[in-house]
């Protein structure tokens, strides 16, 4: 316990430690009625504290990094609106609080070095933390070399670039072999000789060459989709040449473009990788498939998309805001229509059911046509070959039914495409590898936290020093066990699972080719059936015309018969009259030739 005339505080109640002083939680002994400056208390530490956690050793998770990006950019934008340069941006000066919605909120603090400075103004005073200093300021502030250079507001952009790289990867972008504090000359060499486009430089050996890199390290936890958008921003603000370095306007524009994109989650079955595709809501499916091609190397024509177990067909002009909602647990699945070396699961059962349904539909159409062809009168000789096509179609249908049955047999228990092999290969929940590694991780974290407390003490008592040594041994033991569990069990079983998956995927692609071949036969049969139907309709039209002609002929024949009957009757009457007339003349009539 320490105290002054008016205040008292506990040395163990340390709130923070700065470059010049420690901050403790204090209590006023009595009400002095003096005016005081009340500032917000951030109980969750700083961004540096977050990055010091073992779980963030390789950078922040993507969602958390985007929050840092959004909040820091918004803070800097606010400062520039008022013409203020911060001059000491670093993770330790970005405090973290938890909002009402449970999400992190990051705030820029420590404006002791800040001053008003417009974009076209310069300053000569030196402030900042050396790992995050602009190269021109580093030369004078750290190496104590005099020069006549002046500094503009864009020196904050260099500090922001280093901070963002640190948050994304968990390490500083520019690292001499012995560290930036112990080898200042090499540190200056790295930051001043950095080639354009590079975002990091690392010296792995003493007096060794500097290895430049224009991409994030493999260990970075950010998705490739976000890395591809973030890397150009870092490359253009970590620029030594002020003529090539971006200004704040372009920096705000590019970061705003990143933050206003939506994420479409796509899981590549062949790569066994979840991709984050960043795209604007107004972009179309054509651009989406092109971005997907860059991530998966599957060309758009070969991209087979599945969503919630069903085939997903995207119209080329369909906007991203109309895409189905995706998440990490419910992404769009993508696989190549061509066989590739790596593999994953393929939803063949759905395709098989679709083709079964198509077979039945085509069979119904065929039998209906066959029925019509067999039972209808064919009045014209040019349509006689319809009967010849029916046996051919019937034979084709029989062979296709057999092919479908063979494919179906491959999916039933015991078939070549059943997934029962997954029960014997790979990791399973009952192995509890995740839980085992979590137990080891908790033990390692507890030792790590104790080591941090021990480091704060200048000297440990004898008993605590022995405990510290014992904890070191336990740390090595737990770390070795966790590594062995991952490499010898999880990784090995995963490789075996991938090997079996590749073989299974080859069989699936073979079945898929068979299904595509059947589909082509279906289309051909459908075209032939359509042709038959068209001819049947033509025959039907001709038939009705002929029936009408026959009816008309019958009507005319009936009328003709009636007319003939009338004529016959009249002739009979005439004959009767003539016969009577002849009889009268013979018996007593006067004959004209005797007069």
Largest sheet: 5 strands, mixed
| Total DSSP helices | 12
Per DSSP E runs of 2 or more residues, the count of β-strands stands at 15
The radius of gyration over CA amounts to 45 Å
Beta-strand level of the residues, as a percent range? 5-15%
What would the average pLDDT be, to the nearest integer? 79
SS content category: alpha+beta
Plain-language structure description:
With 595 residues, the chain is of the alpha+beta class. It is built from twelve helices and 15 strands. It has helices at residues 47-52, 62-81, 135-141, 155-169, 184-193, 224-237, 248-259, 285-296, 348-375, 386-409, 433-456, 462-587, and strands at residues 2-3, 7-17, 22-28, 84-85, 94-98, 104-108, 115-116, 174-175, 200-203, 210-213, 262-268, 273-279, 303-307, 310-311, 332-336. The strands form five sheets. A five-stranded mixed beta sheet has the order 12-11-15-13-14. The chain has a three-stranded antiparallel beta sheet with strand order 1-2-3, with no helix packed on it. α11 runs antiparallel to α12. This is Protein kinase domain-containing protein. Keywords: ATP-binding, Cytoplasm, Kinase, Membrane, Nucleotide-binding, Serine/threonine-protein kinase, Transferase, Transmembrane, Transmembrane helix. Residues 1-263 form the Protein kinase domain.
Give a quick precis of the structure.
With 595 residues, the protein is an alpha+beta fold.
């Amino acid at each position: 316990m320490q105290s002054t005339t008016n205040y008292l505080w506990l040395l163990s109640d340390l709130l923070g430690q700065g470059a010049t002083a420690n901050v403790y939680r204090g209590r006023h002994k009595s009400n002095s009625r003096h005016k005081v400056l009340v500032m917000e208390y951030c109980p969750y530490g700083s961004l540096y504290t977050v990055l010091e956690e073992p779980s963030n050793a390789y950078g922040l998770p993507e969602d958390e990094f985007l929050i840092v990006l959004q909040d820091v950019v918004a803070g800097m934008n606010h400062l520039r609106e008022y013409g203020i340069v911060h001059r000491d941006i670093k993770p330790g000066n970005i405090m973290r609080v938890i909002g009402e919605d449970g999400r992190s909120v990051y705030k820029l603090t420590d404006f002791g070095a800040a001053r008003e400075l417009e974009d076209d103004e310069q300053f000569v005073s030196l402030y900042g933390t050396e790992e995050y200093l602009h190269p021109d300021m580093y030369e004078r502030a750290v190496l104590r070399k005099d020069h006549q250079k002046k500094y503009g507001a864009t020196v904050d952009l260099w500090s922001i670039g280093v901070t963002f790289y640190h948050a994304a990867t968990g390490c500083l972008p520019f690292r001499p072999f012995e560290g930036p504090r112990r080898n200042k000359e090499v540190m200056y060499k790295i930051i001043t000789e950095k080639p354009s486009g590079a975002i990091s430089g690392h010296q792995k050996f003493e007096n060794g060459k500097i290895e430049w890199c224009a991409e994030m390290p493999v260990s970075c936890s950010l998705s490739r989709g976000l890395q591809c958008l973030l890397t150009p921003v870092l490359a253009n603000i970590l620029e030594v040449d002020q003529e090539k370095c971006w200004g704040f306007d372009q920096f705000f524009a590019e970061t705003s473009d990143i933050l206003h994109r939506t994420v479409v989650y796509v899981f590549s079955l062949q790569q066994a990788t979840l991709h984050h595709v960043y795209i604007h809501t107004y972009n179309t499916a054509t651009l989406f498939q092109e971005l997907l091609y860059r991530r998966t190397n599957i060309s758009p024509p070969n991209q087979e998309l599945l969503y919630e177990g069903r085939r997903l067909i995207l119209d080329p002009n369909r906007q991203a805001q109309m895409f189905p909602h995706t998440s990490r647990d419910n992404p769009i699945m993508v696989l190549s229509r061509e066989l590739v070396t790596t593999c994953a699961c393929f939803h063949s059962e759905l395709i098989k059911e679709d083709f079964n349904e198509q077979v039945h539909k085509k069979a119904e159409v065929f039998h209906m046509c066959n029925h019509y062809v067999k039972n209808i009168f064919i009045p014209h000789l040019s349509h006689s070959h319809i009967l010849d096509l029916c046996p051919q179609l019937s034979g084709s249908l029989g062979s296709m039914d057999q092919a479908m049955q063979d494919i179906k047999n491959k999916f039933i228990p015991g078939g070549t495409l059943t997934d029962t092999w997954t029960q014997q290969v790979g990791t399973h929940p009952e192995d509890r590898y995740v839980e085992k590694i979590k137990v080891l991780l908790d033990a390692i974290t507890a030792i790590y936290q104790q080591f941090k407390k021990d480091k704060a003490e200048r000297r440990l008592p004898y008993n605590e020093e022995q405990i510290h040594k014992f904890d070191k041994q336990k740390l090595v033991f737990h770390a070795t066990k966790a590594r062995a569990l991952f490499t010898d069990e999880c990784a090995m079983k995963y490789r075996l699972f991938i090997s079996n998956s590749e073989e299974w995927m080859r069989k699936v692609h073979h079945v898929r080719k068979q299904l595509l071949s059947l589909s082509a036969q279906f289309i051909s049969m459908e075209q032939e059936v359509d042709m038959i139907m068209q001819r049947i309709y033509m025959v039907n039209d001709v038939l009705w015309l002929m029936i009408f002609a026959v009816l008309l002929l019958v009507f005319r024949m009936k009328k003709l018969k009636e007319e003939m009957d009338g004529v016959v009757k009249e002739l009979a009457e005439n004959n009767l009259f003539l016969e009577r007339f002849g009889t009268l003349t013979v018996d007593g009539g006067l004959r004209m030739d005797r007069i």
